[in-house]
Design a protein that fits this description.
Layout lengths: L1 E7 L4 E7 L5 E9 L7 E6 L3 E6 L5 H14 L9 E6 L10 E2 L2 H10 L7 H14 L5 E5 L9 H4 L5 H7 L8 H15 L8 E6 L3 E7 L2 E5 L20 H9 L5 H10 L2 H6 L4 H9 L3 H25 L4 E5 H6 L1 H8 L11 H5 L13 E4 L4 H22 L4
Parallel strand pairs: 1-6, 6-8, 9-12, 12-13
Antiparallel strand pairs: 1-2, 2-3, 3-4, 4-5, 7-8, 9-10, 10-11
Helix pairs in contact: 1-3, 10-11, 11-13
This protein binds adenosine-5'-diphosphate.
Length: 403
């Protein structure tokens, strides 16, 4: 079964085509980028054919996805061989605690949730609509960034706000990066040879966006991102946690418009705001050259992660493993070691050499908590869910009388 994974954003559409029959093989991946701009292009990369880039004007999502399907048709794996499409949808709200087959009801619920994620959901929905139009008869599945965290208890997801705001307007913590957190948590459990349900695990997704999740009983019980992806850790350009009065101060005292304040917190803060570089490789390079702002930015970034690990260890009432993933988590032994340094008090000790070598388990053999590095694969999670839901649906349909 060939599954196409689509991540439709406002100006780009990323895709990966997997052969899920009898294994999990990536056939081709690529993206349509700068949609709506004159210098738009389409790029693909397959193990068999290598990289290919073509400049072409892609005025909208329809033309971009059409170009993607045409490219697939010309390649080794034809578009006619797409048996299902899995869509990354950022916000599932409280309506979705798992991936779903998309029908008219689901489309309606997705549109309602668009209010909660105005920056992401409308582009995600557009991707679904275009696929439904261009590939009639091919089932579409929605996989949500938020679904994993629907298992959080009220004490974790409620803010200290008037309850009506939650009941009437859905203002609560939702959490994001769910597909990444569950993938690395399950992989970690597998590497340790134990069911995830028996482990207390903290997963740290440290990429451009950063979040951290606490797992016990196989479920997410708390996570650092909130109502939006702005809450929690200090990120490439997002502030993470701050006194909400700061946002009001920006508007009331400094005269920023609401949109300007939103941009400042999402696009000009975090590492970028603290030291003028958003990419952790640049921040580390500057810090090593003696740049004090970069050194402080790393301290702030690391300290925030440490506070969350401490808090989640308390929430979990213990800890078996800390897992690092995404660009920074997978590649920076320096950040991993710095983050874990104080946790010697928990009996967690790092093997410096294994850490430098990027080994899956890099804690010392006598450490009471495992320290692990696991590369994430969000697209594979989407492909797996899509494949499973389509297979289940096909079986159910064929078991019905006359089905
Ligand atoms: P995204 O959230 O966009 O998927 P990634 O998971 O690719 O992002 O992470 C991007 C981040 O990873 C950037 O800050 C980048 O600097 C960082 N990164 C990648 N490689 C390294 C490395 N070797 N050392 C430190 N940071 C790294």
């Amino acid at each position: 079964m060939n599954i196409l994974v689509v991540n439709s954003g406002s100006s780009s559409i990323k895709y990966q085509l997997f052969d899920m029959g009898g294994g999990e093989r990536l056939l081709v991946k690529g993206m349509a980028d700068r949609i709506g701009l004159e210098d738009s292009y389409i790029r693909s990369d397959s193990p068999s054919k290598g990289e290919d880039r073509r400049d072409m004007f892609l005025p909208d999502h329809h033309s971009a996805l059409k170009a993607v399907f045409d490219t697939l048709q010309q390649g080794a794996a034809g578009a006619k061989d797409i048996h299902g499409v899995g869509h990354r949808v950022v916000h599932g709200g409280e309506a979705f605690s798992a991936s779903v087959l998309i029908d008219a009801h689901v489309m309606e619920a997705l549109r309602q949730n668009a209010e909660l994620a105005p920056l992401h959901n409308p582009s995600n929905i557009l991707g679904v609509e275009v696929c439904r139009a261009l590939l009639p008869g091919v089932p579409n599945v929605a996989v949500f960034d938020t679904a994993l965290h629907q298992t959080m208890p009220p004490r974790a997801y409620l803010y200290g706000l008037p309850l009506e705001l939650y009941r009437n307007r859905g203002i609560r913590k939702y959490g994001f990066h769910g597909t990444s957190h569950i993938y690395v948590a399950q992989e970690a459990a597998q590497r340790l040879g134990r069911p995830l349900a028996e482990l207390k695990v903290i997963t740290c997704h440290l990429g451009n966006g950063c979040s951290i999740t606490a797992f016990t009983g196989g479920r997410s019980i708390d996570t650092s991102m909130g109502f939006t992806p702005l809450e929690g850790l200090v990120m490439g350009t997002r502030s993470g946690d701050l006194d909400p009065a700061v946002a009001l101060y920006l508007v009331k005292e400094l005269g920023l418009s609401a949109d300007e304040a939103e941009d400042l917190l999402n696009k000009e803060s975090g590492l970028q705001g603290l030291c003028g570089a958003r990419d952790m490789r640049d921040v580390i390079a500057r810090a090593q050259q003696g740049d004090e702002a970069a050194q402080t930015a790393i301290e702030v970034f690391v300290y925030r992660i440490q506070k969350y690990i401490g808090a989640y260890t308390a929430a979990l009432e213990g800890l078996d493993a800390v897992v690092f993933t995404a660009g920074i988590g997978e590649n920076s032994a320096y950040i991993r070691e710095k983050v874990l340094k104080p946790f010697v008090y928990l009996g967690l000790t790092v093997d410096g050499r294994r850490n430098e070598e990027g080994r899956t388990i890099f804690s010392r053999p006598d450490s009471s908590v495992y320290a692990m590095t696991i590369p994430t694969d969000e697209e594979l999670v989407i492909a797996r869910d899509t494949c499973e839901i389509i297979t289940r649906h096909t079986h159910t349909a064929s078991e019905r009388p006359g089905g």
